[in-house]
Write a structure and sequence with these properties.
The complex is a heterodimer of chains A (265) and B (284). Chain A is mostly helical and 265 residues long. Chain A has one domain: MetI-like fold (Orthogonal Bundle), CATH 1.10.3720.10. Chain A has helices at 6-26, 37-49, 52-84, 86-100, 108-115, 119-143, 147-155, 160-197, 203-212, 216-244, 249-253. Chain A is globular and about 75 Å long. Chain B has 2 domains: 29-105 and 183-277, P-loop containing nucleotide triphosphate hydrolases (Rossmann fold), CATH 3.40.50.300; 112-180, no CATH class. Chain B has 9 helices and 10 strands. In chain B, the strands form 2 sheets. A 6-stranded mixed β-sheet of chain B has the order 6-7-8-3-9-10, sandwiched between helices. Chain B has a 4-stranded antiparallel β-sheet with strand order 2-1-4-5, covered by helices on one side. The longest helix of chain B has 18 residues, at 195-212. Chain B is globular, with a radius of gyration of 19 Å. Classes of the chains: A mainly alpha (265), B alpha/beta (284). The structure holds adenosine-5'-triphosphate and magnesium ion. The site of adenosine-5'-triphosphate has 14 residues of chain B, from β1, β2 and α2.
């Protein structure tokens, strides 16, 4: 980290907040357009103290986690099937292409109609959106096995099953971990979008409610919570990745500064 | 190698370095017999002929080098011997049985080390034991003894990326030896190494071979390397590959690097090089 000064970095952030605060006060911007940072802080404090945020955060977190788990389980299973069997790929290919080019969030209204206003529709939507990035990466990863390595395994008289477990799967882990990273954030997006469409609880629903009552400071405070939530979820995956991929160049070289990755969505 | 580690290896390393080669019964069945072997790639309509009419045999315990210009089909030949590729015509057999697929009594060393970065040095070496479900504890002992034999004692818990290219290639050689195969197939194992490292590796390989008495087929496109290591050098022509000449190397063993400066050595190198100059395809 010779290219930056950490103190300067924090000062810049503080200066930005100060300028925001000053601008809002100076130009008397109405609170229902853009609240000052201090106003957002107050809204955050009230929401947290009244437990409203915590309850809804819990719901959104549960939807995200369940959707993520469901999505990645299906993605991994189907991805493996497609990667290992050209025949499966042949028959599934039209479905995959059709589905892949579709913006999955556009399905949210339908899913809420089919699965109701409760938890299920959020989980299904989160799973659906988390599914694709991991499936694609699983396929690419499992197929990326180096030919020399496959030849080495074959020369040892390894079975296809052994080649899968000892070579293809570990070799695919860099792709799979990258897929999981994206899938995690996508699951959160899926849950929030489904809450927008129709829900009885959750941070997404809360944003809708506060927006209708023109509580923009409240909306901002939830955005803040969501961004911290996204960051934490991402960190969980990164932590896992660092343990699993200790041997991969991407982990060996970039010990820090992985946070910006979500931006590539 | 110390006496205790030799004992731990269950009688694998019987001979010791520097010993004169034992006299073998004459006319023993060859380890490898290749007859009228041919291989073409591509379609039947537009074939790429890689090998044509290859004939040779390798005797038990013999070190044979196969030498040829780039693209003459050396790797193809080795893959056929390893059971990784079917031949198009003719046949190759191992101890009298046609080679129909991979066999467990062969060790292969490729041009690159082909190590798995997620496995430590020791676990890379133990890959054949894992695949073939051999006794773990016993092979761990063998692996550690072999690693110290090639100067990698103490590196067993390191990972491949922590090693230099030469060290990685030594790991690959140890991996090819760990399940005690009777036959070692090596495809330009030192091709990617710097000249000095390469000479050291040649010395090391000779030492291992003198101790282990494996049958070795060693592919290279370095003439001095072939002459230095081999009992016999098979010289191949450019594509389609055929065997142009078989040169017996009678130099006494163990050969030191100084042996490369002797007139006998120079004469053999000149004789082999003449093939390539005549064909205009000088590779070294
Ligand atoms: N999978 C393949 N498909 C088609 N042609 C191939 C294939 N593999 C090799 N060939 C062709 O066969 C010929 C021999 O290839 P091979 O790899 O055996 O050569 P080589 O002697 O090992 O060369 P080098 O010294 O460069 O490693 C080459 O002309 C190559 O183009
Ligand atoms: Mg080759």
């Amino acid at each position: 980290m010779s290219f930056g000064n950490p103190v300067l970095r924090i000062l810049l952030l503080l200066a930005f907040l100060a300028a925001w605060e000053a601008a809002v006060r100076l130009f008397a911007v109405p609170v229902f357009i853009l609240p000052a940072p201090s106003g957002i802080a107050v809204a955050l404090y009230r929401g947290v103290v009244s437990m409203v945020y915590v309850d809804n955060l819990w719901i959104t977190l549960l939807e995200t986690a369940l959707g993520f788990a469901l999505g990645i389980a299906l993605a991994f299973a189907l991805g493996t099937l497609v990667a290992l069997s050209r025949r499966t790929e042949y028959y599934l290919y039209p479905f995959i292409v059709m589905f892949q080019s579709l913006p999955k969030v556009a399905l949210a209204p339908l899913i809420v109609v089919w699965f109701g206003l409760g938890l299920t529709s959020k989980v299904v939507n989160a799973a659906l959106i988390a599914f694709f990035p991991l499936m694609v990466n699983t396929i690419v990863g499992l197929r990326s096995a180096d030919e020399d390595r496959v030849n080495l395994m074959r020369s040892l008289d390894a079975s296809e099953r052994q080649i899968f477990w000892m070579l293809r799967l570990p070799g695919a882990l860099p792709f799979i971990m990258a897929g999981l990273e994206v899938a995690m954030i996508f699951a959160l997006i899926g849950a929030i979008v489904a809450e927008f469409v129709g829900a009885t609880a959750g941070l997404g629903m809360l944003i809708q409610t506060l927006n209708f009552s023109a509580d923009v400071a409240g909306v901002f405070s939830i955005l803040l919570i969501l961004s911290v939530l996204g960051l934490l979820l991402n960190q969980i995956i990164l932590l896992m990745r660092r343990r699993v991929l200790f041997w991969d160049p991407s982990v060996k070289t970039s010990a820090t500064e992985d946070v910006g990755k979500g931006a590539r969505l | 190698m110390s006496g205790s580690s030799a004992g731990a290896m269950g009688g694998i390393g019987l001979a010791t370095a520097g010993e004169v080669r034992p006299v073998r019964p004459v006319a023993a069945q060859p380890v490898i017999a290749v007859r009228r072997l041919g291989k073409s790639y591509g379609t039947a309509r537009a074939p790429v002929v890689a090998l044509e009419d290859i004939d040779f045999a390798v005797a038990e315990g013999e070190f044979v080098a196969i030498l040829g210009p780039s693209g003459c089909g050396k790797s193809t030949l080795l893959k056929i011997l390893a059971g990784l590729l079917p031949a198009t015509s003719g046949e190759a057999s191992l101890r009298g049985t046609p080679i129909a697929g991979p066999r467990r009594d062969i060790g292969v060393v490729f041009q690159s080390p082909v190590l798995f970065p997620w496995r430590s040095v020791l676990h890379n070496v133990l890959l054949p034991a894992d695949v073939q479900r051999l006794d773990r504890a016993e092979h761990e002992r063998i692996a550690l003894a072999l690693l110290s034999l090639v100067g990698l004692g103490g590196f067993e818990h390191r990972y491949p990326w922590e090693l230099s290219g030469g060290m990685q290639q030594r790991v690959a050689i140890v991996r090819a030896l760990v399940h005690d195969p009777a036959l070692l197939l090596m495809d330009e194992p030192f091709g990617a190494l710097a000249a000095m490292t390469r000479e050291q590796m040649n010395l090391e390989l000779q030492r291992i071979w003198l101790e282990r008495r494996k049958t070795v087929v060693f592919i290279t496109h370095s003439i001095p390397e072939a002459v230095f290591l081999a009992d016999r050098v098979l010289v191949m022509t450019p594509r389609p590959g055929r065997i142009a000449e078989t040169v017996a190397v009678g130099l006494p063993r163990p050969r030191s690097l100084d042996a490369m400066n002797t007139p006998e050595f120079g004469e053999l190198v000149r004789r082999i090089r003449a093939h390539f100059s005549a064909q205009g395809g000088v590779d070294l």
